[in-house]
Write a structure and sequence with these properties.
The chain is of the alpha+beta class. It has two domains: 138 residues, no CATH class; 110 residues. It is 45% helix and 14% strand. It has ten helices and eight strands. Strand 2 and strand 3 form a beta hairpin. It is globular, with a radius of gyration of 21 Å.
Amino acid sequence: MNLKSPAKTNVSPRAGEVYAFRTSPFSEFAPPETGRFGAFKVLWVDDRFIVVAALTGIWPSPPVLEDTKRASILEEHRFAYTGRPAVLGVTRDLWEPETDQTDVHLLGELRLTANEQANAKAVSAFAIGTSFGTLSSINYAVEGEWRWANDCDKLVEEAALKTASDNAKRAARKERYRTRLAQLTWEQLLSETPFERWSPSPPYPPEDFTLAARKVVLDACVALRDLGAKPRRAEVRAILKETVQWFNEADDRAGGVIETEERDDIFALLEEMAHVARQKALVDEIDAWREW
């Protein structure tokens, strides 16, 4: 199904705009396709951030504006939540609907209710209990609440699997940091051959893909190194994100050659780059940018 593209990320949204999107799996342990669509509404826009709210209602096909007119702000009850409104502040530099949502598109505009205005004002004033993040959180609210109400047992099982997986990954990262990341430098990274094990093809990607990927990541390492000893997080984020987007586009052009082993190798290298750039907090953002 071809859906109309959303406003580009460099175009400011307007308060009252309603967007529809295809929900994504709640976790890696969920089925790969949900078959559901949700919606969110823009409640506030200023030069600092955009406030959005997940709306009640979930649909088996893309909704139209009329479908959302009676929707209200979704309340979250899954797991430890106790009914807080699914309202989120997104800083301007993180406003990227096309990256953080699937098949997102603008439905139109609706007036703001008094409750929506009150929630927007609370976030804009940084009231206690308000949240900030990326638009991917809206997906987790919509999909998570539907699963909690309709498929709770399976959702709890998946959450337990994810917790176990996260714990194992955390232990592996801790060991990796102890043995490599703590001492890693740009000089060492630039002296190594990225994706050295990607041979032969098949099963690994074609040689031209691998050679291009090596050049992209080495160029990114040079760009990050040239930012100096204490680079700004926004500058590091921009370079890492551009690198991820190259892999998104190159993988699509190549017909989807990035599979599990390649994905792990790319992510590990990006993690190393973030660590050497002294911005290891960005590691948690990388997964949201990728499409492979």
